[in-house]
């Protein structure tokens, strides 16, 4: 997709017979180019922030898609789902323990160690209240998750469920506000 800077530059070049380099510093055309450049930078920054917010959801879906693939894309029962959720929560334990052991006695925890501790605690709390995952407990929903190619738009079409640590399963909405 062409950026607004490229479009503006092309328009100005067409108007000036291909000469964009010879612009006065405060001319209308140079101000248009500057404005288009600033807009492109702002849009890139917003896209990066959105991608960062969406990444935990994509990682979660990938994890449960791989769990399905391990079981030959057959629907999972509640015990298997709960063990997969526990594995997902505990995936950061090795890194956390390594950082904890590497720290000298009496030193404060590193930022990464604090972040991992908060992430693990948030995941455990979410599991107590209801862990949001794509529905992997029915055959048709498992097949639709198998078809997922990695796009964000397809995730909204998947059915989602909340699984609590007590074993309760209820339907949920797509976590558009992000997870964690």
TrEMBL record:
This is Translation machinery-associated protein 16. Pfam families: Tma16 (PF11176). It comes from Metarhizium acridum (strain CQMa 102). One of its GO terms (cellular component) is nucleus. It comes from the Eukaryota. Gene3D superfamilies: Translation machinery-associated protein 16-like (1.20.1440.170). InterPro entries: Tma16, Tma16_sf. Belongs to the TMA16 family. The lineage of its organism: Eukaryota, Fungi, Dikarya, Ascomycota, Pezizomycotina.
């Amino acid at each position: 997709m062409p950026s607004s800077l490229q479009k503006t530059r092309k328009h100005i070049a067409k108007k000036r017979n291909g000469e964009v380099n010879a612009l006065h510093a405060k001319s209308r055309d140079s101000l248009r180019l500057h404005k288009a450049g600033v807009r492109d930078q702002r849009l890139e920054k917003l896209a990066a922030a959105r991608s960062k917010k969406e990444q935990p959801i994509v990682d979660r879906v990938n994890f449960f898609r791989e769990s399905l693939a391990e079981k030959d894309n057959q629907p999972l029962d509640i015990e298997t789902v709960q063990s997969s959720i526990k594995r997902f929560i505990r995936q950061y334990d090795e890194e956390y323990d390594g950082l904890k052991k590497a720290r000298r006695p009496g030193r404060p925890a590193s930022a990464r160690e604090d972040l991992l501790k908060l992430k693990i605690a948030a995941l455990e709390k979410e599991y107590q209240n209801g862990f949001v995952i794509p529905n992997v407990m029915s055959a048709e929903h498992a097949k639709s998750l198998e078809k997922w190619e990695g796009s964000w738009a397809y995730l909204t079409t998947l059915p989602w469920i909340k699984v609590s640590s007590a074993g309760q399963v209820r339907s949920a909405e797509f976590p558009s506000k992000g997870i964690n």
